[in-house]
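Hello Y.,

Per our agreement to keep a running log of every chain we model this quarter, I'm adding this entry. I've kept the format consistent with earlier entries: sequence first, then predicted structure.
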Amino acid sequence: MSTRFATPLRKRDSGPNRSGPPENGGGGPPVPARPMWIWLAAAAVAGIATIGLVVAVWANDDSSGSAEPLALSAGDGGATASCLPFSVETLAGMAQAFEGTVTAVTGNTITIAVDRWYTGSDASTVELTTIGDAQALLGGPSYTVGSQYLISASDGAVNYCGYSDAATPELRDSFAAAFGG
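Predicted structure for the entry above:
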């Protein structure tokens, strides 16, 4: 029983390495020709992969911080809020921590321009959204346009009880100790 190839065979020159074995010296059976579409498909895949890599690198190359603001909940300050005693160890476990300057307080939204990220993001702006009056948060600061704050957050919500407050030398020292800088 003979086997037929779907790929056409072509007879190559009879010189060395121009046809299949014996031992690459030629003179053997003809070698199947590679159809042109295989080369074209390989070139297309390589081109698409290169374009994808360039776009991915370009999209991630934003040294000025991300264009989209980081959105955090400032909480509701309700009676269910409770505070743990402040510790640098607990602060170090926060998902996000930054120092920033309030640029706007509009309704239930506080917009903060990030001056320095300690951990968790590279956004240049953070928007805190409150439920109710932004000035009445339990254990939280009264946000004032132009003032600097140190903010920490976990699970998308700002942590208060001393973990987020107006920037002071003592709180800056705690953030530096918690995040190594």
